[in-house]
Amino acid sequence: MVEISEEWVRKNIGNDFKNTFIITAPDDSMYPTFSNGDLLFVNIAIKCHRGDGVYLIATPKSLLVKRIQATISGDLKIISDNKNYAQETISPAKLKSIHIYGKIEAAFAFKTM
């Protein structure tokens, strides 16, 4: 268990402390942006696509951390920074198949020596 002070979160991430949750990166799909097991600070007040960025999303089959990018056509690209994972595109008609739980505001990496 890691304890992080409210003061540290406010100073380094922002003032929305009550809506900030910490999860661990579930896999290597976002490498090199962050690695499996890194601490991710999720702003759960953001429940919809609010600008391109990295989000915590749920699909009918899994919970994912992915980059979301809007297209001119209204589609959303679901992107893994790790090029070993395929990119997906969600059309406006299928947007209800995903649920956004929050936007990743920061990541904290642990390095072993």
Give a written overview of the molecule.
It is built from one helix and seven strands. The chain has 113 residues and is mainly beta. It has a seven-stranded antiparallel beta sheet with strand order 1-2-7-3-4-5-6, with no helix packed on it. The longest helix has 7 residues, at 6-12. It is globular, with a radius of gyration of 15 Å. The model has no long low-confidence stretch (mean pLDDT 91).
Write the topology of this structure.
Layout: H1 6-12, E1 20-24, E2 39-43, E3 53-58, E4 63-70, E5 76-79, E6 88-90, E7 99-108
Antiparallel strand pairs: 1-2, 2-7, 3-4, 3-7, 4-5, 5-6
Beta-sheet strand percentage? 35-45%
- What class would the helix/strand composition place it in? mainly beta
How would you describe the oligomerization state of the chains in this entry?
A: single chain
Radius of gyration: 15 Å
- For the record, give the distance between the C-alpha atoms at the N and C termini, rounded to a whole number: 20 Å
Main sheet: strand order: 1-2-7-3-4-5-6
Enumerate how many helices there are, as a single number. Answer: 1
Given the C-alpha coordinates, what overall shape results?
globular
